[in-house]
Amino acid sequence: MPETTRELLTSGGWKELAFGPFRDDVTIHWIRSFEDDQPGVALLKYEAGASVPRHRHEGLETILVLDGVQSDEAGDYGRGSYIVNAPGTEHSVWSETGCVVLIQWDRPVKILE
């Protein structure tokens, strides 16, 4: 990740980045898309009340909550929380208040619903 991207993430500068469509009420800013068997890295911005349906992790997923609160069946994760979802695990995700997360997927997830 270039130093300028790191600085944007830690200083709140991500607020100035362009986000595009991902799912209903969830937008994405790709830092690195999936290519040549490399993981995908992105920022996801959830509007208040947004959710992602139940899905299975086909590879390792790591998340750092940069702002707000992200939730799943295991709990609520506020700013600074670091979440690791192992390959083969399943859950759904939502944010009652809205949030922004830095996410890395080894492989795209499989939506189950």
UniProtKB/TrEMBL annotation:
Ranges of residues in domain ChrR-like cupin: 16-103
Keyword Lipid metabolism assigned: no
Entry annotated with the keyword Mitochondrion: no
Family matches, as Pfam families: Cupin_7
Protein keywords: Plasmid
Superkingdom as given in the UniProt entry: Bacteria
Protein name per Swiss-Prot or TrEMBL: Cupin 2 domain-containing protein
Organism: Rhizobium phaseoli
